Model the fold of this input.
Amino acid sequence: MSISKLNLTNPMDSDVKFKISRFPDGQQTVDIESAPMYINGLDVKIYSRMNSFRDIELIIAANQALREMAVGTVTLYVPYFLGARSDRKFQQGGTNYLKQVICPIINAQKFDCVIVLDPHSDVLEACLNNFGKIDNHTIVKYALTNIDNRNAARDRICLVSPDGGALKKIYDIAHEFQIHHLVTAMKHRDIQTGKINHTEVPTLPASLDGEKMKYVIVDDICDGGRTFTELAKAIHAQQPEAKLYLIVTHGIFSAGFEDLSKYFTKIYTSNSVKDIMNENDDTDAERAAKQIVTQFNVF
Done:
């Protein structure tokens, strides 16, 4: 079945041509410019970075414009799902942001399928109608091949889970790629502030047949990156010369790359949140730090 693309992230790559209008009061609209006879009965997939409510507004406007033109099915492809980390009520007087705020808005659009890449929480599947999940295996395979493309690479790689919450995904990766070495770290947080005090790592495998292990940390999201720099410090405490690699599906990198570049040989991520290399407001130091990043395109 042929599905046409309406790409809100990259309009030049859109099969369905459209125009976005923005008004002084903040309103945004999407107007379909393709001929009605072409749109009628068409199956369409909307592509979007769902990073903010402004993105959600455009998703809704695009969907409703398509419905007005009697399309067939409408699928929503949002690799990064806004609010997926807020999958429970964290304090009295708050909300379950995912369940009570975001998912009801998307569910009201009655999409035939909503496709998400490597979602942070299983709660999303329970709250989102017509949920479609893509795992992170393609990104991980790309990264592992880049790290070491020899046939026996899996014997020289140790997967590191940053905490117990990521362990299931790490086990799935270990099984998928037949990697035998796997360890799970433990983060210790301050009870009141939630900040990481220190990270513990069990005894690490050091080498195999004279070759040093490569330690690969895999997780779904990197925001500021402190989880990973603290983990890197704990690994280096055991293996000072260890080469460390980071694979994260969704790269927010709100604190930049300068600290991360002190510890990691290479960082692999997707462009689900942003096109990292296209940011133009970096300092010289930040641009240099970014050279360790390899980005996998999901748009």
Observations:
- The chain has two domains: 4-134, 137-296.
- Residues 53-68 form the longest helix (16 residues).
- The longest strand covers residues 214-222.
- The domain at 137-296 is CATH 3.40.50.2020 (Rossmann fold).
